[in-house]
Amino acid sequence: MGVKTIRSFCDVPAGRDPQQGIIVTLPAHTGPATLSFDLHARHTYSHDLTASGKGYSRYSAIIGVLTMGGDLLTRGAVEAEFRSADDLFDRISGGAGPGGLKAVAPLGREQVFVTIPSGVDEVSILGETLDAITPAGHETVVLPGRPVAVVSNLLVEYTPAPVRKKKN
Prior knowledge:
- The chain is mainly β and about 170 residues long.
- The chain has a single domain (about 10-155), classed as Jelly Rolls.
- The chain has 1 helix and 9 strands.
- The chain has one helix spanning about 45-50, and strands at about 10-15, 20-25, 30-45, 55-65, 70-80, 105-115, 120-135, 135-140, 145-160.
- Strand 7 and strand 8 (about 135-140) form a beta hairpin.
């Protein structure tokens, strides 16, 4: 849960199997639905590195929204740089750090919108790649299960399916 925004944040794991992503189940609907969410870079915050001036990081993450059959509906991307704590989108509570904050923090924000076709009742959000430059060096991540980004503010817009009347 975000300290400033009171949003729920969720890691997006890398992978190709829709069952291993963030699964979003849609209510019964007529016609297409729209899923929107905010995509953030996933930064590991270190107060000591930041205070010493060595906390610079740069992230480029690409995610996909897929049907449970593996068909790609859309891609989203976020690119963000970290220089100071002011660059963070929010801090996440529930950690062992100072003030009960987690070290992982969302950075940057890109809105993603995807049209979900009629007849699709579940989709999966999966990470494709993460290119990161951090104090530890340069790395490109594609390992299944490894978090590559963070999402928040998920919203589904749809036209409800007609209510079926019970037969007497």
